[in-house]
Fold this protein.
Amino acid sequence: GIQVEQSPPDLILQEGANSTLRCNFSDSVNNLQWFHQNPWGQLINLFYIPSGTKQNGRLSATTVATERYSLLYISSSQTTDSGVYFCAVEPYGSGNTGKLIFGQGTTLQVKP
Amino acid sequence: ETGVTQTPRHLVMGMTNKKSLKCEQHLGHNAMYWYKQSAKKPLELMFVYNFKEQTENNSVPSRFSPECPNSSHLFLHLHTLQPEDSALYLCASSQEPRGGHTEAFFGQGTRLTVV
């Protein structure tokens, strides 16, 4: 099956710093989402981005489907950005079930 | 608030107990999902329901029994669980997948501990 790899696995930043999280996937995908999991376990939708570039405030994301990767940019990081960031893909040809395959996540800690 | 609500938020159960997890979505979606998140592991899909019909069972043991009475409600019935089943169980919903836009929205999760 499809493999989803995220890097780096862990990241520590000082408040105000910028960062880039990467998601590589091994096969074609129908869709790709980025999530932020807060300390209580809630998955917050960040981007639905099967291709192209989107921006939402201090966050932006780019997916290059032909090269099988996606990037999540966090600018001017804040302590509230801390948590785990997941990339998830819907494999192409998965029978249109809508199922998502998740990466292992990047754990981000932003220090004041 | 994502529009997907799970109850209870926390559950402790013995290995001989029977309990149920509940999920309700207020987004008008037609597909619902159960995922399991164990410590140190990525989220794993368990079940998919489209228009109340189960379309995917990811080799889940029979001690987990899903039920989808309508497109807005999804249950996970639990019986004779093992300690290794302790995990965060997450429910999600999306538009019907063949419609193309399958952005999934997740509930807050139920943190289950089996003792």
Remarks:
- Residues 22 and 73 of chain A are 9 Å apart (CA to CA).
- Chain A has a mean pLDDT of 94.
- The first strand of chain A starts at residue 4 and ends at 7.
- The interface with chain B takes residues 4, 30-31, 33, 35, 40-45, 48, 86, 88, 90, 95-105 of chain A (CB under 8 Å).
